[in-house]
């Protein structure tokens, strides 16, 4: 009779072991038939490969990215998730460089820069009051900024639809500005305001006299939580000062950023 299991039974048992091993890991079943001294520890290279595969599994497509990229100024390579993310981490220009879209690595949240040309600036097209110099955005990109020449009525507004923002995150809105040297007329603080889709408002003032000169700085307008159940709408954010009556000079507006709060 032999030792209990027939040759056919042995073959069937080995086939069952092979069938239970996960796809892509055929060596697990084969190891059962190897002598212990032949089982080698996993190499560091293999470990790194597994970590890379695990990281790839964690990645998910950004919220509403296909709709956003319809406005891209140039084509985006979507042949693989890694290639897509390489471009989105760097950033993609939209609407003839009026906006920039990128993905925050930490939160996987959508971020946007609305450049000065995408903001509503009172008297912006009157060259007595505003000038539009080109500023360095990157090593190979120059974009127009709005430089205040002389005005007593300062009023800047931006609007954005929150459907393009990633849900369930705390977002902040900040103006990116520079005060040139010399600059004058800033004795009265400027007002910052954020109006949310439900009509609620946030507001505060910033003392510009205390801000550094000749460097880009951030002036926060407010923050809010994006809705996880997709109840979204338009937000409006503003920077203004016109009640003091002072003539002002030397403010340069690069744009406004919407991004997940760190």
TrEMBL record:
This is Galactose-binding like. Residues 1-52 are annotated as: Disordered. Residues 1-24, 41-52 have a biased composition (Polar residues). It comes from the Eukaryota. PANTHER family: LECTIN-LIKE. The lineage of its organism: Eukaryota, Viridiplantae, Streptophyta, Embryophyta, Tracheophyta. Pfam families: PP2. GO terms for molecular function: carbohydrate binding. Transmembrane segments: none annotated. InterPro entries: PP2-like, PP2-like/Lectin.
């Amino acid at each position: 009779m032999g030792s209990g299991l027939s040759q056919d039974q042995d073959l069937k048992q080995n086939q069952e072991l092979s069938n239970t091993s996960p796809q892509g890991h055929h060596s697990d079943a084969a190891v059962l038939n190897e002598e212990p001294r032949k089982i080698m520890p996993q190499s560091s290279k293999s470990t790194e490969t597994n970590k890379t595969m695990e990281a790839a599994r964690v990645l998910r497509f950004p919220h509403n990215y296909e709709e956003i990229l319809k406005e891209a100024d140039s084509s985006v390579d979507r042949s693989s998730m890694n290639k897509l993310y390489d471009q989105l981490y760097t950033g993609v220009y939209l609407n003839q460089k009026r906006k920039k879209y990128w993905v925050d690595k930490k939160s996987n949240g959508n971020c946007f820069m609305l450049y000065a040309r995408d903001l509503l600036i009172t008297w912006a097209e009157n060259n007595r009051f505003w000038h539009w110099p080109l500023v360095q955005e990157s090593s190979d990109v120059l974009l127009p900024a709005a430089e205040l020449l002389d005005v007593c009525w300062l009023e800047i507004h931006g609007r954005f639809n929150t459907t393009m923002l990633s849900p369930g995150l705390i977002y902040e809105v900040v103006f990116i500005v520079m005060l040139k040297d010399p600059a004058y007329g800033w004795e009265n603080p400027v007002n910052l305001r954020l109006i949310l889709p439900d009509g609620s408002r946030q507001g505060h003032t910033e003392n510009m006299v205390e801000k550094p000169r000749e460097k880009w700085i951030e002036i926060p307008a407010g923050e809010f939580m994006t809705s996880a159940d997709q109840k979204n709408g338009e937000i409006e954010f503003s920077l203004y000062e016109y009640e003091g009556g002072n003539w002002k000079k030397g403010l340069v507006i690069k744009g406004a950023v919407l991004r997940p709060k760190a």
